[in-house]
């Protein structure tokens, strides 16, 4: 299977799913429509990832970072909401770029849910962590990427995005529709958790930025990765 | 060895995908209830009654909370039970909540059944051909996870042996963990580069590579795929035609029992969910009968 055929296949799958999703939307079947939409939003990154023929060394580097964040999520499982995943994903994005950040986030959600249980929520978690990694990756060539304010901001955005997307799934799954009032209630009642996500992200970023970013930057320069 | 292990992963995946689509789009109780019962039975066949019963408290908690969410957040419906803060709490919302809870429980049960019938490695082998780079990334990561743990142990042992594991006080403890993590990152990233070079040396990414097919498609797969298509046509008919579309607001008790064509469609959907119970149950039964009692 060549790269071109792989991408054509993915585009075809995306097209069919898009049509099906639009139909479900029209029918009011939001419980299935929302997870499919979340999956569709991760699809462009997958297509670019396959299309660019990401090299072996880049793949290996992304795989190590994903491994670290999966192990982190599993090790911190007893503490609800207190996970190093977003921090590791943000740091990968800051160092290796938007696509690598997205893939690390999405792959972490997919793989760690083999331990925690797969379900429609996997698509939302993949999207949330992937988007945070992508967002961080946008600053990978910027001079302010080690700015503590930027890191804090990314950590908070990561926490809020994760909460907003998982609450979106909870609302749709529980009520069958997307009632703005119900969604708002979920967001407000889940605020302590959102706060915990954000604070733990910032805390992990404060602790991990120096040790991890130095290593990944050094690796990038030494082997000429992601250039 | 379960029945699913002898099938091609694609057959198992598509079968469960069909069940999940049917469950998540089933809105009327007449469609949902048989699916829920099959989910419970299938999971019971897979893990045994004892472990299934152990999950009941959590399931009840989920059911109760979803019902409560609907009762207090959705204010539609005609049969008002009481008012809370000037907003009506209706019977319909409660029933819709119970139905939502049952749907979510069925999805969770079917997902865990899928995870058991199609473990991660077989699921990944399914995507290896279509998404080669993503599949490779996921597999490399799965390979790194045990190695990360091993290296972490080695690092802490080595630092302990060097007398660097002075861990009096919280600050020192955190510092020690951070430097362990820092060493681990360097070590694993360098190791992964060696692994990548090894892959390249053996021709990774060169054109013309073929793939070893380890999962044969057999007659049984063809038979099951045919049965799936035949059953899916009537089972998906209500979704695509909009017939039997269920609405809790207002509640129409006369529509609880579907007419014959609709009932046949629901029966086809239920058959998709019931067949795995028999296929897997047969194996479990055989295992219990043939097991030596010495």
Per the principal axes of the C-alpha atoms, what is the gross shape of chain A?
globular
Radius of gyration of chain A (Å)? 18 Å
CATH topology call of chain A: Arp2/3 complex 21 kDa subunit ARPC3
Helices and strands of chain A, in order, run as: HHHHHHHHH
| Number of β-strand runs of chain B | 2
Verbal overview:
The complex is a heterodimer of chains A (227) and B (294). With 227 residues, chain A is mainly alpha-helical. Chain A has a single domain (56-223), classed as Arp2/3 complex 21 kDa subunit ARPC3. Helices cover 82% and strands 0% of the residues of chain A. Chain B has 294 residues and is mainly alpha-helical. Chain B folds into 2 domains: 3-120 and 215-290, no CATH class; 126-201, no CATH class. Helix content of chain B is 72%, strand content 3%. Chain B contains 10 helices and 2 strands, in the order ααααββαααααα. In chain B, α2 runs parallel beside α10, α4 (56-73) runs antiparallel to α5 (91-117) and α9 runs antiparallel to α10 (260-290). The longest helix of chain B has 32 residues, at 170-201. The mean pLDDT of chain B is 86. At the A-B interface, α1, α2, α3, α5 and α7 of A face α1, α4, α5, α7 and α8 of B.
Question: In summary, what is this structure?
Answer:
The complex is a heterodimer of chains A (227) and B (294). In chain A, 82% of the residues lie in helices and 0% in strands.
């Amino acid at each position: 299977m060549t790269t071109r055929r792989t991408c054509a296949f993915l585009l075809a799958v995306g097209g069919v799913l898009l049509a099906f999703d639009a139909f479900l939307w029209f029918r009011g079947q939001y419980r299935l429509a929302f997870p499919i939409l979340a999956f569709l939003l991760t699809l462009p990154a997958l297509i670019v990832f396959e299309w660019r023929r990401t090299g072996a060394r880049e793949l290996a580097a992304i795989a190590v970072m994903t491994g670290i964040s999966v192990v982190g999520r599993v090790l911190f499982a007893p503490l609800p909401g207190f996970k190093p995943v977003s921090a590791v994903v943000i740091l990968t994005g800051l160092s290796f770029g938007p696509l690598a950040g997205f893939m690390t986030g999405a792959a972490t959600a997919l793989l760690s849910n083999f331990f925690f249980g797969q379900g429609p929520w996997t698509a939302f978690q993949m999207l949330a962590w992937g988007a945070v990694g992508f967002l961080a990756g946008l600053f990978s060539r910027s001079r302010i990427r080690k700015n503590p304010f930027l890191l804090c901001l990314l950590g908070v955005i990561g926490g809020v995005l994760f909460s907003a997307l998982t609450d979106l799934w909870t609302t749709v799954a529980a009520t069958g529709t997307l009632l703005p009032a119900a969604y708002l209630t979920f967001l407000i009642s889940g605020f302590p958790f959102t706060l915990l996500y954000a604070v733990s992200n910032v805390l992990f970023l404060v602790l991990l930025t120096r040790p991890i970013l130095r290593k990944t930057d050094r690796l990038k320069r030494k082997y000429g990765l992601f250039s | 060895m379960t029945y699913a292990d002898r099938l091609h992963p694609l057959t198992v995946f598509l079968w469960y995908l069909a069940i999940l689509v049917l469950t998540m789009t089933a809105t009327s109780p007449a469609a949902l209830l048989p699916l829920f019962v099959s989910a419970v039975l299938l999971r019971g066949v897979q893990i045994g009654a004892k472990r299934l019963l152990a999950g009941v408290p959590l399931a009840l908690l989920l059911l109760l909370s979803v019902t409560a969410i609907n009762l207090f957040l959705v204010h539609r419906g005609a049969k008002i039970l009481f008012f809370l803060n000037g907003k009506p709490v209706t019977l319909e919302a409660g029933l819709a909540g119970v139905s939502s809870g049952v749907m979510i429980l069925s999805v969770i049960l079917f997902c865990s059944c899928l995870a058991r019938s199609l473990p991660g490695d077989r699921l990944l082998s399914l995507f290896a051909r279509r998404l080669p780079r993503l599949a490779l990334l996921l597999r490399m990561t799965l390979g790194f996870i045990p190695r990360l743990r091993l290296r972490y142990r080695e690092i802490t042992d080595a630092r302990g042996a060097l007398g660097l594991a002075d861990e009096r006080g919280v600050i020192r403890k955190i510092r020690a963990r951070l430097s362990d993590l820092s060493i681990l990152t360097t070590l694993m990233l360098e190791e992964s580069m060696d692994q990548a070079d090894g892959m390249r040396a053996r021709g990774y990414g060169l054109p013309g590579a073929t793939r070893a097919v380890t999962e044969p498609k057999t007659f049984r797969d063809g038979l099951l795929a045919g049965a799936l298509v035949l059953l899916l046509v009537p089972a998906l008919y209500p979704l695509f035609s909009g017939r039997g579309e269920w609405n809790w607001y207002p509640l129409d008790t006369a529509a609880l029992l579907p007419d014959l064509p609709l009932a046949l469609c629901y029966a086809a959907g239920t058959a998709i969910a019931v067949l795995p119970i028999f296929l897997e149950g047969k194996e479990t039964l055989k295992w219990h009968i043939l097991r030596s009692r010495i």
